[in-house]
Amino acid sequence: MKIRFFAYCALFFLLIGSVSAQDYAFKVLGSKGHNVVIGGATLKVGAKLLATQSIEVGEGSYLGLAHNSGKTIELTKKGTYKVQDLVGQVNSSGSLASNYAKFVIDELTEAGSDGIAAKNRFNHMNKTGSVTRSLGSVVPMLSSDNDNNKIYGNVMTLKWYLKEGSFPKENVDRYKVQVSNLSDDVLLVQEVKEEFLKIDLAQGKLFSEPILIFRVFALDKNGKDLDNVPSIDGIAVRRLEQNESSQIEIELSAINKESQGALAKLIEARLFEEKALYADAIHAFEEAVKLSGGTEQFKKMYQFFLERNGFTPETSEK
Predict the structure, then answer these.
(1) What secondary structure letter does DSSP report for 183?
(2) Which domain holds residue 44?
(3) What is the DSSP string of 267-290?
(4) Model pTM?
(5) What's the distance, CA 226 to chain centroid?
(6) Residues 6 or more apart whose Cβ sits within 8 Å of residue 61
(7) How far apart are CA 6 and CA 185, in angstroms?
(8) Residues 210-235: pLDDT tens digits?
(9) Same structural domain, 304 and 204
């Protein structure tokens, strides 16, 4: 009799624990525009949705959700959605992406929309060190360690910033990006007004080069290099070997099976950062911000990534 009693007690507490762990269907990861619970409040980051509720997504809005299993879903089309129907769209099977997805979910929701938890990680997550070689006044946002600076993808968003204490930013009319090989043959030269350039590494001679060297120059309105130095070092980026790429392909496939759109790109960015593939991470963050329509939480997460890896004037070593 006692054995049966204790068995019932154990089952009771097990069920209570299960219900407690599953007291919501989704958490809000990102929200932009008009997103509300029907008959309730506006949806903010960290808010929980119950399976019995319905939500409304407005025209031009974005809503990113994380299921209690860790899988994600996003809504970009205007309409009214039953949460229970959204649950049915979530694939409940586990995968390699779960750890990366969990990090992204935690980073977006631990401190609500202000991202304090993510920002505080900077002190113990700075990995790249600083750019200490002679790169001139314009510093590409890439690892300064040429031995380990690698890239997986064929599309790269190269970003840069002006060193503190260099010439005034208003003196810059445009930037010149130069890509060379190890023999110092110039493979690509392009001028842009912005502080970034999206580069297709599969184009022309770039595709066949295993190592590419990037240099960025600030030009005045007459096209003169404001640094006025004979030459500067570039930052070398090595393409991954096939055996290195194969594992990445497996993990990216797993991410795209359980996530989509901007949220998938955020999770990809986390994977790339963990593997020190900073150029790939930057491109994934750029895509995530673009696909989410510039959702503020995603932009903050991107900024914290740049800070904790020393890719801003304030966080790079002088």
Answers:
(1) T
(2) 23-118
(3) HHHHHHHHTT-HHHHHHHHHHHHH
(4) 0.80
(5) 32
(6) 31, 32, 33, 34, 35, 75, 76, 78
(7) 78
(8) 999 999 999 999 999 998 776 778 89
(9) yes
